[in-house]
Amino acid sequence: MPQNETIQSLGLDEYKYHFVDDTKYLFRTEPGLSEEVVRQISAQKGEPEWMLQFRLKALEIYRSKPMPKWGGDLSGLEAVLDQIYYYVRPQEKMGHSWDEVPENIKRTFERLGIPEAEQKILAGVGAQYESEMVYHSLKKEWEEQGVIFESIEDGLRKYPDLFRKYFGTVVPPHDNKFAALNSAVWSGGSFVYIPKGVELKTPLQAYFRVNMERMGQFERTLIIADEGSRAHYIEGCTAPVYSTESFHSGVIEIIVHRNAHFRYTTIQNWSTNMYNLVTQRALVHENAHMEWLDGNLGSKLTMKYPSCYLVGEGAHGEILSIAYAGDGQHQDTGGKIIHAAPRTTSSIVSKSISKGTGRASYRGLLKVHKGATQARANVECDALLINETSRTDTYPYIEIEERDANVGHEATVSKVGDEQLFYLMSRGLSEDEAMALIVRGFIEPIAKELPLEYAVELNRLIELEMEGSVG
Amino acid sequence: MTNEFGFTTLPQAPEGVTSTLNRGMVETLSAFEPAWLRERRFRAWEVYESLPLPTTRLEEWRYTDLRKKLDLGALAWPAKTQCADDWEACPEALRRAMEEDDPSAGRIWGVDGQIVHVDLEPRLQEKGVVFTSLREAVQRFPRLLEEHLATQALPPERGKFEALNAALWTDGVFLYVPRGVDLELPVRVTRWVAQAGVAFFSRTLIIAEAGSRISFMDEILSHDLEAQTLVSRAVEILAREGSQVHYVGLQRLGKGAFFQASQRTLAQRDATLDTLNIGLGATTTRVDLNASLLGPGASSEMLGLYFGEGDQHFDHNTSQDHLAPHTTSDLLYKGALDGRSRAVFRGIIRVHPGAQKTDAYQKNRNLLLSPEARADSLPNLEIQADDVKCSHGASVGNLDAEARFYLMSRGLDREQAERLVVLGFLGEVLARMPLGSLGQKVTRVIEEKLKKV
């Protein structure tokens, strides 16, 4: 990839999140997974007995389930799972102000621009480093209105009843192999409760950072949006590039109660040695809205299909998915919408870009259960191929058990046309710039849904990735 | 042997070997056959034994549970048919079906898995066209058959049913059209099934030499069958450079039939190889169709139409393989479903590396006419070339209330209006291929079904 002036002036590398902190760890489990590891994690957190039992049961389920045979190539994963660290504790206790966070860790998040963004545009911030949340803070005005934004561990400690009522109900451990693994070894993540009628004006954000080599991160997030509430939650993820592979497997459970409106945004930019297998699911009640905005740019292999279970009449689910697969990357992403109540509506829009030897696959399920009358659903997938060696796949599943449904799916695959490039170049743009402009136009419908800072970041990233892509 | 999770499994009794379907049957069938065919049957049988019966854990069989839908153990071997090659001896329903047809270039009819009658216009015989039963072709054209029968298009390794058919076929049809010959009129094969509780295996091999033109109409029908009956059919079509082949399969079997069809079409440079599969009958229908575009300029139109009622189950599994640049494929499968019927469509477009300038399309549309009907649709794409035009679409919907209202406002009653909407919906498929009387036949059968509903 040629290093031209644009890149140099921006001061960016190919993967600008590659920096390693020399951090000492307070505690870490032996590499690999065992019952002992699970017990140690639970003991480290001083958990109630029921949670330990939940973990141990989940471990059993994990071991009983075969490795998935579909999706991406997981043949190398078993070796990775045997040698990673399942739990690494970076510090004694979590901070509620950045001053309480150890200097070197704080510096990491400063480089990622988190404290700055917190000042400017966020209602609250959580920051996870390896296995634990190192920082969690919510602006006072929201705290006063009864909003809860805690690390998942504090959620369990401080709100045991609320926690237990919902935990594991949306994504039970037996849902899939990696949900079971997460249920056994989860650590870190957020616990969020938005009280009835409260509307958060600015987003909450959680930032996930893996720093150590051969690290497994298993965050778990539980979000309850009570009736009529409104909120937006953003997660971002990065890690340095190592020669060995790392593993990230989160579980996100969201309950969107009647008339509530919730949006969950992911900007995943893991380094390209990361396996990223995530289960994200929302239960959407009567007249509630759930939106997943899922941006997958990094990782070696991502398998992630955010889902909406529309269980209340008039519920609405939306998934906007954007995937970028560069050399050696496989983004196996998409979404699932389950219509299980009358007059529910949904839409999935997926845009993917494959470049070099990258492979972007859309995999989605659209299901209308019997009794979900007058369901309306639409799926649109567009794929853009940049090079001859790029690959794209579309695997939609459409299952309709109700006559009174109206469901459509459309997908197109195209390449950047020579005419398009030629036109823009005749207007004075360089080939790289023209390419970047076309790609930006392609993802624009999704980028415009992002908060401004992220949209800018995404555009910059695309510009960077398109350098030298022509010819 | 390893299972789907990569674990070694202990040898166990091969699945699908029964008191009827077994090695002994292969022995009996091949007793007086040439050595190459005997060997081929036994090898196919070995493949059959080595493959497990597909389960719903396989993507291709996700929505059709063979363990519930097909009882191989209950199937007997059909008794030899006594039907003579005589129009008067022809079963009445079969005769009626043929009387409805437009003129043909050649005609074959068969009863219970055996070919009874063959004719072909003398002018075509003179030009070297061969249209005959597969059994006779084995005797007369051993070299052609040895080279092409169950080898390039449907070798036994393609799957359990492909292997079973290759081992146990009893008869079928062979069509060979020499270079540059235009059949002008369609050739027709009409088959009647009378015996119930048995398994039929037939094969069709079509070879279109360079520049030839073929229209092949393949119809099968029966009354309702009181016991489950397996009707297995393998169709292999080889279209050489610049040839044009239209293949139409019309299936009107009665209740009780399990119709299993494997079809593969291989299109060489500039060949046009179009197929239309019409499924109106049988309790369960499973069609596996692969169109391979092997030479630049090859194109395939793939059409399908199904109408389900009662407990009918249709499962169409299609694939479009683009293996050369400048190839085109266009698939449209449409179905209307009434009663508790169910349709599954799984289709995949694969653009292989180097198949630049591919133009591939795929669409499945379903109309649900009853609250108990169900449709599952899986239109897939796998694209490994960048300069292509590919898209697919799927939709499931109900009768357009507005269209119905409009027609009713013009004086039609509700039933008539619905019938017109359904026929209009399905008619799009029929209009895409020249069908002559066959199109009217299909429309009539659908109308009858709609009236019954």
What does it look like?
The complex is a heterodimer of chains A (about 475) and B (about 450). Chain A has helices at about 5-10, 35-45, 50-65, 75-85, 105-110, 115-120, 140-145, 150-160, 160-165, 175-185, 420-425, 430-445, 450-465; strands at about 25-30, 90, 125-130, 130-140, 150, 190-195, 205-210, 215, 220-225, 230-240, 245-250, 250-255, 260-270, 275-285, 290-295, 300-305, 305-310, 315-325, 330-340, 345-355, 360-370, 375-385, 390-400, 405-415. Chain A is built from 13 helices and 24 strands. By secondary structure, chain A is of the alpha/beta class. The N and C termini of chain A lie close together (about 10 Å). In chain A, the strands form three sheets. In chain A, strands 5, 6, 8, 9, 11, 12, 14, 16, 17, 19, 21 and 23 form a twelve-stranded mixed sheet that branches. In chain A, strands 4-3-7-10-13-15-18-20-22-24 form a ten-stranded mixed sheet. A two-stranded antiparallel sheet of chain A has the order 1-2. In chain A, β3 (about 125-130) and β4 (about 130-140) form a beta hairpin. With about 450 residues, chain B is α/β, with parallel strands linked by helices. Chain B has one domain. Helix content of chain B is about 25%, strand content about 40%. Chain B contains eleven helices and 19 strands. In chain B, the strands form two sheets. In chain B, strands 2-1-5-7-9-11-13-15-17-19 form a ten-stranded mixed sheet. In chain B, β1 and β2 form a beta hairpin. The termini of chain B are far apart. β23 of chain A pairs antiparallel with β18 (about 375-385) of chain B.
